[in-house]
Amino acid sequence: MDIRKFNFDWNGLDEHIKNLDISEYVGDSEEFVEVSLPSFVNTYGRNEKILFPLKFVEPHQYLNIITNFKKCNWIGAAEYLASLKFEKNSLINNLFSISNRQINQEIYNLALVNRYLLFVRDYAAHEANKNNFIGSIGNGKIILSHDVDAIKVSYGLKMRQYFHTNKWPKLNRGENLNCIKEIVELEKKYGAKSIFFFNAGKKYFSIPLLDPNYKLKDLESTFSFIIKNNFTIGLHPGIISSFSLLALKSEIKNLKYFSKVSEIVTRNHWLSHFKQITWNIQSKAEIKRDFSIGFNDRPGFRNSSLISYEPIKDLEAIPMILMDGQFHNYIKADKDSIINFLKPIVEEIKNVGGVASINFHQRFFHSFYGYKDLYIELLEYLNEEGVL
User: Fold this and answer.
1) Which residues pair with 141 in a beta bridge?
2) Which residues of the chain are in CATH 3.20.20.370 domains?
3) At what angle do helices 180-188 and 372-385 cross, to 10 degrees?
């Protein structure tokens, strides 16, 4: 049971895990069942049963719900979900990260990975007579971030917008969409510091109309401003860079040259992600943190977690749980309803002491999109909830 892949506070109880009487079984089922939680553990704001992959339940007789928690491989199940192994591979999903409507949606609405680990820790505390650790959680944390897909209005941007909304956007080609200084000044009022992810792709590694198309040499003053204010510059790799080490290294070199950053954090454009392939090339490119695990079409927990997870040693994957494009392009909900969608997510972050990022593209602060006032309201809400 490899618990080192999870950035989780065991409070010294990890030494007791190897002595716990729980299963290490791994089967081949793709179904999910419910497991009843014993009375000595905390339920962390939810009910006394939890969804669990049958693949990690040792075969035994039971009725509608698993009552013998010792038959469950809790760490194996946590890694199964965190690593996205439960997802069926498809090119469209790998490229554009769309959720599966046929799967039990509780997987996307609860941080099951966190809850499995909390159960193991509570069980270890119970067995070691250290019950004061049962129910203990840290402070939840939301990391603010902004994907920079366009600096000025281009034909490609207008085409992508039309594809989503079936309306030709009333934006003039060449119109400024930077808005980064405005965002920095807003966030500073709340003591927050976000990440701005910039694309650094060369033309020969970019896909026309799908990938961003701007030049980093035009952003040197923007980079200086971000660094001066101690915000973070990250890389927003194009689609090809999610599966090509050569393309990814080219972008890293380009971003480092113009921004002068030394350590690279990433979020892939379109959240394009080929799971182990992507993590392998990121590791080879010496990327330390990636924020690409999320959905384009809905808010929620793609890998059923609110946790920093190491799919490969020294590579930290932090989930993205909500972004503006989910509402503007897919759900088509009024932007003012975003906070209502966010509230149960924040509740779960606080329930399990989780960490995740949210993403608001900097161009959405332009008057055409009109997200500035909403973002101010969102910052006030997150600040009040103590998760900034």
Assistant:
1) 355
2) 141-385
3) 30
